[in-house]
Design goal:
The complex is a heterodimer of chains A (about 270) and B (about 625). Chain A is α/β, with parallel strands linked by helices and about 270 residues long. Helices cover about 40% and strands about 25% of the residues of chain A. In chain A, about 45% of the residues are buried. The longest helix of chain A is centred in the C-terminal third of the chain and has 27 residues. Chain A is globular. Chain B is mainly alpha-helical. Chain B has 4 domains: about 60 residues; about 220 residues, no CATH class; about 55 residues, no CATH class; about 190 residues, Orthogonal Bundle (MetI-like fold). A two-stranded antiparallel ribbon of chain B has the order 1-2. In chain B, α1 packs antiparallel against α2. Chain B is elongated. Classes of the chains: A alpha/beta (about 270), B mainly alpha (about 625). Chains A and B meet through β6, α3 and α5 of A and α23 and α24 of B.
Chain lengths: ~270, ~625
């Protein structure tokens, strides 16, 4: 029972000038073990705030959030994170980055070594263990970040626009990798993204969030992630239902953006 | 010889590097545009060019190259300088270097002062009688002055004596043109001259006796000239009329002094006396009687220039930026030749001082001495350690035997009271300086980095320590020096503390910058990977701050080095700055330059080491 359950999450930031920003309002959802969730929305809708709360970097000002029945209070090994730029420790080699979590809890060295080999294998970085991370390309860095997060065997994997900085081709490859890992490990994954296509493809479930105040606007259950496990992602992207949903969501976000602009202009 | 070869090699390197540089630029023209930073990469030939041009300037302007290529030139120029020196008293009386005759200058000055005195007198509050008396006296002085210029009153033999001087100078000019002059070589004298120490080999710098034929010409001429000059300066315009007038004026002054009662009156009288005493020198002559000498001097100068020949080119081109001047019994280099020591001499001084038996002020430059380990333990382990051991110190018994306890043995150990083997310990001026810098630096790093990281992570620490660090940091370290040296003493403690202060501030600031510059996502990642706060500092923030910290260390070394040398100049008895300070007081330019070069090279060495360390330890810098 390691579901992620949130109940009326609220997050209000007090600004130094006395005003406040309502970043999240009444966000309530349940993410079951093994589900793959994409969160999409225009900038300023509170995606990253939501992620930071789940990760334990922020405390919500209202509501509750539980993982596996216990309230999330601080960052923990049960929630692994992957960041946009990888956030690798560039002074360490690939292997030392990957085994960072195990080293922090003084795990057995032999076992660690074996696990690192295993995970480098899974993410497709065999033989790169001794390479300094600053010599890797962006895609390879993200693979290291994935391995570093997965080696800790977290219940929940949080990804903050993990593929945002990659070129289109690398991105597609990485999307397949994420799907593969999702299938093979059966982990619960939550991905923040600003690419609609990515959200559709990587979202067994998809939340579209709306800004001001940040809230859940619409939820989808989508078949594309399942299809992507075996099929060619490019073909899936051409399917009628995919195109339809994509256009629907794009229009939705477009309208939200328009609304914001209108508000700004009116003010 | 070595210098000559080196000089030519430097010239070749200099021109080669320029030609090579031009070649490289031509090949690059297609693939690098202006502003492209790649254009600064490589270019070691320009390093060679810079170094060689610097060395060429040094060799040239210190006259080391001149000495190597023309070892006798200084000796010959010394002889010319002797002649010039002998000639100078006569020369300066004529408008050759000056615009006016000496007599004209004296006369115009004295007349002007009389003018001033008259004006002053009219403004003074004096009785009419007094004023009249003084004005009368002033008139008499003026008349005496003017009288000197009149050929009517000069002593009858003066034109003749001047003519004699002119003839003798002309003869000397002719002699200089005559190739027989100055006659056969005196073997004994020549042997003596050749036995002199060479240029720069003794404290007299330039051998004073002529070693060459060309030198002899000017040496002999100088001797003759000295005789002429002596006779010239004995000629005075003290004809009977002038002498009588001066005598009268003097009597009159004495007379008036007798009846003087007012202070202002006495002052004026004194001024008049001063001017009249100048007339007493009788150095003003009617212009026509000295004209012959002026003409003969021009002849002599021409002859001197002709006879010097190539020596004049050597003087201006090979020995640039100064002159060789003759003193009473020695010749010396002046200008850059004096204050810019020759590289070869500087190196020789360094080698001489580097000999541990020699050293400087009884202390070697860099050497080692054997020191028993016990002494170091005495220094490192506080004696009070023994007090912490349980038990009692030993005491003597009835028979007077002393029973030492374990506590005693610990005490003996801590106070260094035991036999031990010796280890070599670096000792010497340069070592002392280096060790002080390192001690200050390491203390600064050990305390500054943790505080800096703390300040980068904690609002309290940032706020609390910021005023402290930021207030003392901008004060130049030398402004602290007097205070610190008073509190901690002029020995190593004070200097190390001063250097610690310098390094500490820099390390705090750089560590703080490094800590605040850590990407939040890296810290988030570490948190979610299960790192504790302590682990995050050790494993994430510290390595992430390394680039800043290492840059801080690099800057600290430079600043510490500069501060140390200055501190050593203020106080202390060892260290490279001390050496320079003593050398400065003794105007020993060679040692001053030697110390400057040692400091420069050591500073460069430190920086090179830091560059290598930075490249090795933080290769990811700028690539993360």
């Amino acid at each position: 029972m390691s579901d992620l359950i949130t109940d009326k999450l609220n997050m209000v930031f007090e600004l130094p000038d006395g005003s406040s920003v309502h970043a999240l309002k009444d966000v309530t959802f349940t993410l079951k073990k093994g589900e793959l969730l994409s969160v999409l929305g225009p900038s300023g809708c509170g995606k990253t705030t939501l992620l930071n709360i789940v990760a334990g970097f922020l405390h919500p000002t209202g509501g509750s959030i539980k993982l596996g029945g216990s309230i999330i209070e601080k960052p923990g090994v049960d929630r692994g994170m992957v960041f946009q730029q990888g956030a690798l420790f560039e002074w360490l080699t690939v292997a030392d980055n990957v085994n960072f979590g195990l080293r922090m809890k003084n795990a057995d060295k032999e076992e660690t070594k074996q696990k690192v080999e295993e995970w480098l294998d899974i993410v497709g970085l065999q033989g790169f263990g001794d390479t300094p991370t600053y010599q890797l390309s962006g895609g390879m860095q993200q693979r290291v970040a994935l391995a570093r997060c997965l080696i800790n065997n977290p219940d929940l994997i949080l990804m903050d626009e993990p593929l945002g900085a990659l070129d289109a081709l690398t991105r597609e490859k990485m999307q397949s990798l994420v799907l593969k890992i999702w299938k093979e490990t059966g982990k619960t994954i939550m991905i923040i993204t600003h690419s609609v296509e990515e959200a559709l493809l990587l979202g067994e479930r998809l939340f579209v969030m709306a800004p001001r105040p940040g809230r859940l606007h619409k939820q989808y259950r989508l078949p594309f992630a399942e299809m992507g496990l075996d099929g060619d992602p490019r073909e899936i992207k051409n399917e009628e239902k995919f195109v339809q949903t994509r256009e629907e969501i794009l229009t939705m976000i477009w309208n939200m953006e328009e609304e914001i602009m209108g508000k700004v202009e009116a003010a | 010889m070595i210098v000559a070869v080196l000089y030519i090699a430097l010239l070749i390197v200099f021109f080669w590097s320029i030609l090579h540089g031009r070649k490289v630029v031509r090949t690059e023209r297609t693939d690098a545009v202006f502003g492209n930073p790649i254009r600064t990469q490589g270019g070691y030939h320009w390093v060679a060019c810079g170094v060689s041009s610097l060395m060429l300037v040094w060799f040239t302007f210190s006259w080391d190259a001149g000495r190597a290529f023309f070892p006798n030139s200084a000796n010959e120029l010394c002889q010319v300088a002797k002649l010039n020196r002998a000639l100078n008293p006569i020369r300066s009386a004529f408008p050759l270097d000056n615009r006016h005759l000496l007599g004209t200058r004296i006369l115009s000055r004295d007349l002007y002062q009389i003018e001033l005195l008259t004006e002053e007198l009219n403004e003074l509050d004096l009785t009419d009688t007094d004023r009249g008396n003084l004005l009368l006296l002033i008139d008499e002085v003026r008349e005496a002055l003017v009288l000197q210029a009149s050929s009517e009153f000069i002593a009858p033999d003066i034109p003749e004596r001047f003519q004699d001087i002119a003839t003798r100078i002309e003869q000397l000019a002719l002699d200089l043109q005559n190739h027989e002059f100055p006659g056969p070589v005196d073997e004994a004298k020549m042997a003596e001259a050749l036995a002199q120490p060479g240029w720069g080999e003794s404290s007299t710098e330039i051998p004073v006796l002529p070693k060459t034929q060309r030198g002899r010409i000017f040496d002999v001429a100088a001797e003759i000239m000295e005789g002429i000059t002596e006779d010239f300066s004995e000629i005075r315009n003290d004809g009977p009329e002038l002498t009588k007038r001066i005598e009268n004026i003097r009597e009159r002054i004495q007379e008036l002094e007798g009846i003087a009662d007012q202070e202002a009156y006495k002052e004026v009288l004194k001024d008049i006396e001063k001017i009249s005493k100048r007339v007493d020198d009788f150095r003003v002559f009617p212009t026509q009687v000295t004209q012959g000498i002026e003409a003969s001097l021009i002849l002599l100068e021409q002859a001197m220039q002709d006879r010097q020949g190539s020596l004049r080119f050597i003087d201006t081109l090979v020995l640039p930026g100064g002159d060789i001047l003759a003193g009473n019994n020695a010749c010396s280099e002046q200008g850059s030749g004096r204050w810019l020591p020759k590289p070869s001499d500087t190196l020789a001084t360094f080698i001489w001082m580097a000999d541990p038996a020699q050293g400087y002020k009884g202390f070697p430059l860099f050497w080692y001495k054997m020191k028993p380990v016990s002494e170091m333990i005495d220094f490192l382990v506080p004696d009070s350690v023994a007090d912490l051991i349980p038990g009692e110190y030993g005491h003597h018994d009835e028979e007077g035997n002393i029973h030492s306890s374990f506590k005693d043995r610990i005490y003996n150990f801590a106070s260094g009271d035991f036999d031990s083997f010796s280890v070599p310990v670096p000792t010497g001026h340069i070592w002392d300086s280096i060790l002080r810098v390192l001690a200050g630096l390491i203390l600064g790093i050990l305390l500054g980095v943790p505080l800096g990281l703390f300040m980068g992570l904690s609002r309290f620490a940032k706020g609390y320590f910021d005023p402290l660090v930021e207030l003392y940091r901008p004060v130049p370290p030398l402004a602290w020096a007097p205070l610190i040296l008073t509190i901690f003493g002029i020995q190593d403690d004070g200097k190390i503390f001063l250097l610690f202060m310098v390094a500490f501030a820099i390390m705090v600031i750089s560590a703080r910058t490094g800590a605040t510059g850590t990407q939040l996502s890296k810290i988030h990642a570490a948190h979610s990977l299960g790192a504790s706060n302590r682990q995050i500092i050790q494993q994430v923030i510290l390595p992430n701050s390394l680039p800043e910290i290492l840059t801080g260390i690099r800057i600290s070394i430079g600043v510490c080095w500069g501060t140390l040398v200055a501190a050593e100049m203020l106080a202390g008895t060892t260290g490279i700055g001390f050496v320079e300070n003593v050398a400065r007081k003794q105007s020993d330019y060679e040692i001053i330059w030697m110390t400057i070069i040692v400091m420069g090279v050591l500073g460069l060495l430190f920086d090179l080491i830091m560059r290598i360390v930075i490249d090795k330890t933080i290769p990811w810098r700028g690539k993360g």
